[in-house]
Amino acid sequence: MRQIAALRVSCVAGLFAIALTAVACGSDDSKDAAASQVSMATATATESSAEPSEDSTSHTAAAATSEAEAAQVTITGEADVAVTMSGPIAAKYASATDAQKDALGKALTGDRNAGTRDSGVVFQQFQGGVIIAKNTDSGTAAYVITSGGIRDAWNTERAADGTPSPTGKNGSPGPLGVPTSDVTTDGDVQQASFEHGKVIENTRTGEVTVTVNGKTVPSGLT
């Protein structure tokens, strides 16, 4: 009999424990509170997994549209001919400042003024400068080099060591290589960096300093 009574007490205790777990170990009031907490947790989880809001979706769509528009830009070039730029060149032109666009002027047409070099370098020449990038890969940076002592020094034919030579190479195939910055201005001083050096121009004195692989070489300008 005692064993049966103990078994009944054990069963009742087990059922009581299950009931306490179900109602969060409390009375009717605490049961309601527990149910409320469960509902709140469910709602929070639902909100976390919900679709993005209309505002965030619109923002994402706008960003994607902006990137797509920057992937191709058509402008009026020299002699009112339409010039279409794409990839890094288009993206750079789209983000260029008004001052940079004014300095560049109208785009030039023809195979010699736009295209892709054997090295993969892409470029678009303008009346007052060039936009150039290492390649057409997405995310590749393009740079603006405007006319002046910097561009003239970069376009000077040079030997492999950077010294001016009529049999050397100029521009991106030359010893300076592809630009790695736009032309920047600090007072009277303008400069641009390249893969293998830099060119600095004092716009007040007209002095141009060319450095190739850490060595200062003649600018080649008179």
Description:
With 222 residues, the chain is an alpha+beta fold. The protein is 36% helix and 23% strand. The chain contains six helices and eleven strands. It has helices at residues 2-22, 28-48, 54-70, 87-95, 98-104, 149-154, and strands spanning 72-76, 82-86, 114-116, 122-126, 129-133, 142-146, 184-186, 189-194, 197-202, 208-212, 215-217. The chain has a five-stranded antiparallel β-sheet. It has a four-stranded antiparallel β-sheet with strand order 3-4-5-6, with helices on one face. The radius of gyration is 35 Å and the shape is globular. The N and C termini lie far apart (120 Å). Residues 1-54 and 56-69 have low confidence and may be disordered.
Helical run tally: 6
Terminal Cα separation, in Å?
120 Å
What is the average of the pLDDT values?
78
**Per the principal axes of the C-alpha atoms, what is the gross shape?**
globular
Range of strand content: 15-25%
The oligomeric status of these chains comes to: single chain
From the alpha carbons, calculate the radius of gyration and give it in angstroms: 35 Å
How many runs of DSSP E, i.e. beta strands? Answer: 11
How are the strands of the largest sheet arranged? 7-8-9-10-11
Q: Class by helix and strand content?
A: alpha+beta
Roughly how much helix do the residues carry, as a percent range? Answer: 25-40%
| Uncertain regions spanning at least 5 consecutive residues | 1-54, 56-69
Main sheet overview:
5 strands, antiparallel
Helix and strand sequence: HHHEEHHEEEEHEEEEE
